[in-house]
Amino acid sequence: MLIGLAGLLSVLLSDWAWSVRLNHRPPLDALFEAVRTVSTVGPVAPHGSNAYLVFASLAMLVTIVFAAAFTAGMVDRLLGPRSVGMVGPRALPRAGHVVVVGLGQVGLRLCTGLQNLGVGVIAVERDPAPPNLRLARALGVPVVIADAIDSFVLRGLGLDKAEAMAAVASNDLDNIAVSVAARAVAPDLPVVVRAGDHEAITETQSLFRIGIVRDLTSLSAAYAAASLVGLRPHSVY
Known about the structure:
Blueprint: H1 2-21, H2 27-38, H3 50-79, E1 97-101, H4 105-116, E2 120-125, H5 133-138, E3 143-145, H6 151-156, E4 164-167, H7 172-185, E5 191-193, H8 199-207, H9 216-228
C-alpha cells in the first residue's frame, strides 16, 4: 500500500514539476494537469515538447500499476487477518512498549493487563488465523502476524526501544528461540520466557544463563491449598 501511494505521489510531483519548470505552465494549471495524468485521463490538450508527451504517456501507464498496488494493499489491510491500525488504539507503539509473543490465553490476558496499566503492547502471533484474533481486535490490542524468531521482524517492532519482551507461546522451545533472537537484537532488553517442564529446558539452562526462575504452578498450588484449609495467605514463596 505504501509503495503504491509513494509511486502515485512521485508521478504527481514529477508531472507538476515538468509542467512548471520546462513547459512554463502556471502552478495551478500544472497541478490540475498532473492530477489528470495520475488519474490516467491525460493532459487537457497536447502541449509542450514531444519528450513531455512521451513522459505523460509512460506516467499514465505506470500509474495503473501503482494504483493497483495501492488498492491491493488497502484491501489487504482492511480485510486481512492483521489487527494493526495506522491510528487509534491498535496503532503500533514506537517506544516504551512491551512485545508479547503468543496470542493464546496467557498472551491475551497479559496484553490487556499491561494496557490497563497504561503500557503500550504489541502482540506477535505466527498463526495467520489465531482463535483470539477477533477478541484481541475488539479489545484494541495491536496484533502482528509474523514469526518472532526473525530478527528483521523484531527490529520492525522496535525491540531496541521497547521496555521488555514476553515470550508466552504454548511451545517452550519456540519461546526459548524467540528469547535468543531477542537477545541478539537487544542484548540489554528484559525478557520474560514462559517455559514448563520440557526436557530441553534443563539442557538449555546449562548452555547460558536464563535468569530468575519462578515455578508458577507450584506457587499457585500452594496458594490454593492454603486458601482451601481456611488460611488467608498474603504471599507464597
